[in-house]
Amino acid sequence: MPLARDRASSRAVDGLCERRWLVVGTEAPRPGAAIDPIVPESTIVNGSTGPLVFDLDGTLIDSLGGIAATCRVACRAIGAPEPTDSVVVPLIGLPLAEMMRCALPPDIEAERVTESVVIYRSRFDDVALPMTKPFPGVARLLGDWARQNRPLAVATSKSIAVAERVLAYADLRRHFTVVCGGDEVSRGKPAPDLAHLALDRLGATPDRAIVVGDTAHDMRMAVAAGVRAIGVTYGAHDRATLLESGAHVTIDRFDDLAKLFDG
Fold this sequence. Notes:
- The chain is α/β, with parallel strands linked by helices and 263 residues long.
- 42% of the residues lie in helices and 10% in strands.
- The strands form 2 sheets. A 6-stranded parallel sheet has the order 5-4-1-6-7-8, sandwiched between helices. A two-stranded antiparallel sheet has the order 2-3.
- The radius of gyration is 17 Å and the shape is globular.
């Protein structure tokens, strides 16, 4: 089951990583401020057949618990306090180094953050991967869309090598034309780079595409890329956070995507 979270924990990233916006060059929405939709909400439903760009963790796969557990293993290994789920989960979706920096004490040395990242990567396969599984309905719907030749892509903060392993483990890789990892761009989410890369590889334009994700980072990426966004509420961030970050609509189950697109 997805980890429990509340709006306060979903907003934790704003306080812990506020300076991230200076790094990626993307203006952060004011806390509590809604983002104007790019297009009317009605254009995202009823027969939409354009490319779909999916986040991975918390959107396609139930992996939040495994990520949080691996984060704690890495923190413990360097002698740092182990962060709670309420700290780690809102950070999921950011680049790994940023997630670890924000999960660790704010005064920790940069070298120890780097060490924690190395340990996280070395332990991911034996800690997080066995806890990873697709959400209900994901494999079926992806298979349906792939058979319909609908362009499908993954845009994840995971490195491309890890993303490929996770998708293969979950038996989802065969459905995707394109997989883009965070180590393939110079700026991670919420900058638009990953969305742009996915669309470039699909040969698609932003006006026809839709981003589907579970975090504010995904929604802000979509807004920055000029792409419509659907937020899923069963992942890391809650409905209010997703809407305030730019989601045009939100859904509570992956199966609800079929209802949106089929009308």
